[in-house]
Input
Amino acid sequence: MAEFTKVTKTGDIEPGKVKVYDVAGKQIAICNVDGTFYAIDDVCTHDGGSLDQGELMGDQIECPRHGALFDVKTGKALTLPAVAPVQSYPVQVDGDDIKVEVDV
Ligand code: FES
Output
């Protein structure tokens, strides 16, 4: 069953930054794009790079291992060597709380 799970507070992730959290056993990267939060799997679909260790540029994140770019809004792979999207998750901001909808 999918439900929104509280993950962190809005003040914990500055604009332009990414942090990774364990949510229901998944490593999920939460990205702050100019005050809007997006959640994606932290694991690159090319060869398992940790996306939170890469650079967030606008709404794109660069894998630190081989440089693939992903759209953090949709999870779509934008450049090689990644071709498959990363999973993206709905985010809800409730007061100061950031909640992510994951299967639990
Ligand atoms: S592991 Fe991410 S581009 Fe290779």
Notes: The two ends are 6 Å apart (CA to CA). The chain is about 0% helix and 50% strand. Residues 38 and 85 are 15 Å apart (CA to CA).
